[in-house]
Specification:
It is built from five helices and nine strands; from the N terminus they run αβββαβαβαββββα. By secondary structure, the protein is an alpha/beta fold. The relative contact order is 0.19.
Length: 208
């Protein structure tokens, strides 16, 4: 072997080695969780409400599944449309995967009846098997949001049309054991990217 051939082989070996290291580094980084990922210290609340199909839907049906919750009302003229568009993206990302679910709680359940939510879900092209819009007595939904998730949901006495309720814009990530694993600001695209990263992590590890 000539010195020239030896040098080319050494260069090729170095290039391939560097490429492998870069790939490994990228893979490790992509498997890491975001700075919003939480240890499993707090359980999501139990609940049973009606979804947009009119059937009873409970937290028991989410056992063994990773899910994301948000809190909206159909007449909202504020941040709700943005939140629901993010959930549409998540639905697209995990289309047909029964191990991933979306749950939208109405903070205006007196108005957001089953027929209203059915049309709302239809307008969002929601998959009834994967995305559940929940309604029920306010006296039951509000404690789930306020005491169960420890988040804001209340009527604004000075609210104008489309802004009748004060509610959280956080997106809540829950793991397959029903533990809250992250809270993300649904008004920030960068936060949603962190949510997507943490979903991938949970979906990859939930069956291990």
């Amino acid at each position: 072997m000539s010195m020239k051939d030896f040098n080319w082989k050494m260069i090729l070996l170095v290039v391939l080695s560097l490429g492998a290291l870069v790939y490994l580094g990228f893979k490790v980084k992509s498997d890491q969780v975001s700075d919003r990922f939480m240890s499993p210290d707090t359980a999501a609340p139990s609940f049973t409400f009606k979804d947009q199909t009119g059937r009873s839907f409970s937290s028991a049906e989410l056992k063994g599944k990773v899910w994301v919750a948000d809190f909206i009302f159909t007449r909202c003229a504020g941040q709700c449309p943005m939140l629901e568009q993010w959930l549409r993206v998540l639905q697209s990302d995990w289309k047909g995967n029964e191990g991933f679910q979306l749950v939208s709680f109405s903070v205006d359940p007196d108005y957001d009846t089953v027929p209203i939510l059915r049309q709302y879900a239809k307008d969002l092209q929601a998959d009834d098997a994967q995305w559940h819009f929940l309604t029920g007595p306010k006296g039951q939904i509000y404690p789930v949001i306020q005491k169960g998730f420890h988040l804001t949901a209340e009527k604004d006495p000075q609210g104008t049309p489309g802004f009748e309720f004060i509610h959280t814009t956080r997106l809540i990530l829950v793991d397959e054991n029903g533990m809250i694993r992250g809270m993300y600001d649904g008004q920030e695209a960068a936060e949603v990217e962190k949510l997507k990263k943490d979903i991938r992590h949970l979906m990859k590890t939930k069956n291990k």
